[in-house]
Design goal:
This protein is an alpha/beta fold and 276 residues long. 33% of the residues lie in helices and 19% in strands. Strands 1, 2, 3, 4, 6, 8, 11 and 12 form an eight-stranded mixed beta sheet that branches. A two-stranded parallel ribbon has the order 5-7. The chain has a two-stranded antiparallel ribbon with strand order 9-10. Strand 3, helix 6 and strand 4 form a beta-alpha-beta unit. Helix 3 crosses helix 8 and helix 6 runs parallel beside helix 7. The longest helix has 24 residues.
């Protein structure tokens, strides 16, 4: 006889199996190359005008000067240390972190969700494999060890900080290529991850084409404004700031852009031309 408790347990079990797809799509190598030429500021502005939530991974800063990355996310989630967790985690080379490493190449960025900003996600021996795999970059809201050696490896690293601490005392790698939260941002496998000296931004794979279109248009306009202000020094308020999709044709900025051949007919930055 089925009791109310049995029914409740069955319903709970069914709910626990309800899970959407981890990946939201894939980004082409061609698009990654385009994104790498943009600033993270332009990209985050593009996401903002489209109404997407925050996409800036808080605390992830470049380990070395001039480092920049653009790649598809391979995700790794850590969980707090607990004896049964450590016992149940696949051992040695079968560990989720090494599974994640083997999914990385030039077009991928490994995104590691730590349990805390000062906990170590790894150092020189582990990340030697990422160098061998020619990884496109490593991003974490935790810390890394062996800073000098990681800089010598040559791939971009973005972390909250550095630390001499060991990670296994505080956390264990638990899941490869699931949906994670890193630095306050949701990251799905396959999302575009772009980092520069200002930080790291995540672009949802499903929105990447439109975000690029907006961000690229913004950067073109900003270059024109900067060029104008260098030729004719004065307060930037005449032209800047501006909002994508809201530039008026008869405004000082609209008239300036017209002299450069940028109009509502060929740009989505004007009032009435927004296509998002």
């Amino acid at each position: 006889m089925r009791t109310p408790m049995h029914s409740a347990m069955r319903a709970t079990a069914m709910r626990s199996m309800a899970l959407g797809p981890a990946s939201g799509g894939q980004v082409s190598d061609e698009m990654l190359a385009k994104l790498k030429k943009l600033s993270t500021q332009a990209i985050i502005d593009g996401l903002w005008v489209m109404g997407w939530p925050t996409s800036f991974i808080e605390g992830a800063r470049a380990l070395g000067k001039g480092q920049k990355c653009a790649g598809r996310a391979v995700t790794l989630r850590f969980v707090p240390q607990r004896p049964d967790i450590a016992a149940d985690k696949p051992p040695g080379g079968e560990s989720p972190e090494y599974e994640a490493f083997e999914k990385c190449g030039e077009g991928e960025v490994l995104v590691m969700a730590s349990v805390g900003p000062w906990e170590s996600v790894g150092g020189d021996i582990k990340f030697l494999r990422l160098k061998q795999r020619s990884v496109g970059g490593l991003v974490t809201d935790g810390s890394v060890r062996d800073t000098d050696e990681l800089l010598n490896y040559g791939f971009p690293v973005f972390s909250y900080s550095t630390t001499p601490k060991q990670g296994p005392a505080a956390m264990q790698p638990w899941e490869c290529n699931g949906v994670i939260e890193c630095g306050g941002v949701v990251v799905r496998p396959g999302d575009a991850v772009v980092g520069d000296q200002d930080g790291v931004v995540v672009v949802p794979a499903k929105a990447v084409d439109k975000v690029y279109s907006i961000a690229h248009g913004r950067e073109q306009i900003e270059e024109i404004v900067k060029e104008e202000l260098m030729k004719n020094p004065g307060p930037p308020g005449k032209f800047y700031p501006f909002m994508s999709g809201k530039i008026k044709v008869d405004s000082p900025l609209g008239k300036l852009l017209a002299t450069k051949g940028i109009t509502p007919e060929n740009s989505n930055q004007f009032e009435g031309s927004a296509d998002w």
